């Protein structure tokens, strides 16, 4: 691939980030990060950039990940200062996304505002099921309202939860119907559904068809394994609302990009999937 490539779904995987994960969570990550995976192996930020260079990745959106309520087993929250440091060190290669902890309340809303206005973060990111919530839970609406005010997109995990261990069980609360209420209440909020919505792919496509403010990230799962409806969506009427993500470090860039090449996307579709939509949606200065 020679065109610009923007990965909209990237997580830190260095020693500090890995140490924040609980000991029971690491083998879980090894299990769910398939078929392409770095698993629980630590990858320095320098190595992360090196892998991006080798794969021709122009830039990536780096998440200050927040999964799980503070103080509970399995909680993993990345200090946004770490992400900020990476965006400064590799200016133009990394752009920050602020992770959302709905239990942080208005302090969390203020933190989101601070990192967007003062530090140039370009969006927000939330995984509601890690907090025992559906995306349309009332406790998330103050964050949605702030995103709308700041005119930034928010990535929302849509799809199943594979987390089930003796210490942490999270129900699969991310079905796409949960986006309906949000879209009706805030029709101008830019919602970015991650993980392709699996296993509710067709439901997510339907939601995006119904609401023009719902975008879909093609990440986590190989498109070839997800069936025809998603590919048809990418190639036709979803062309302006699709975004590329590798969910790094869940996947290796070489394998994910090889799969994209095998989809036989037209010269009209591929640039929009791989970069153009992301640049426009997140207003990236590239």
TrEMBL record:
Keywords: Lyase. GO terms for molecular function: carboxy-lyase activity; hydrolase activity. The keyword Lyase applies. Transmembrane segments: none annotated. The keyword Lyase applies. Residues 81-284 form the Amidohydrolase-related domain. It holds the Pfam family Amidohydro_2. SUPFAM superfamilies: Metallo-dependent hydrolases. This is Unannotated protein. It comes from freshwater metagenome.
């Amino acid at each position: 691939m020679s065109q610009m490539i923007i990965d909209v779904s990237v997580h830190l995987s260095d020693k500090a980030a890995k140490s924040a994960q609980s000991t029971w969570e690491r083998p879980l990550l090894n299990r769910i990060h398939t078929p392409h995976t770095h698993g629980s192996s630590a990858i320095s930020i320098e190595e992360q950039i090196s892998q991006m260079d080798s794969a021709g990745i122009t830039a990536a959106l780096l998440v200050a990940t927040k999964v799980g309520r503070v103080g509970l087993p399995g909680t993993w929250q990345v200090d946004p200062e770490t992400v900020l440091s990476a965006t400064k060190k590799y200016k133009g290669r990394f752009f920050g996304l602020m992770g959302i902890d709905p239990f942080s309340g208005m302090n969390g809303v203020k933190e989101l505002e601070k990192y967007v206005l003062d530090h140039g973060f370009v969006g927000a990111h939330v995984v509601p099921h890690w907090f025992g919530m559906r995306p349309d839970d009332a406790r998330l609406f103050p964050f949605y309202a702030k995103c709308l005010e700041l005119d930034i997109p928010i990535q929302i995990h849509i799809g199943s939860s594979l987390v089930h261990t003796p210490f942490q069980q999270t129900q699969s609360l991310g079905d796409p119907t949960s986006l309906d209420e949000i879209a009706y209440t805030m029709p101008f909020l830019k919602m970015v559904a991650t993980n392709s919505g699996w296993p509710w792919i067709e439901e997510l496509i339907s939601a995006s068809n119904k609401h023009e403010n719902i975008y879909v990230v093609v990440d986590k799962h190989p498109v070839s394994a997800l069936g025809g409806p998603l590919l048809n969506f990418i190639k036709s009427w979803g062309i302006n609302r699709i975004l590329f993500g590798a969910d790094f470090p869940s996947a290796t860039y070489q394998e994910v990009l090889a799969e994209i090449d095998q989809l036989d996307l037209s010269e009209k579709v591929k640039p929009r999937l791989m970069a153009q939509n992301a640049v426009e949606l997140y207003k990236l200065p590239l």
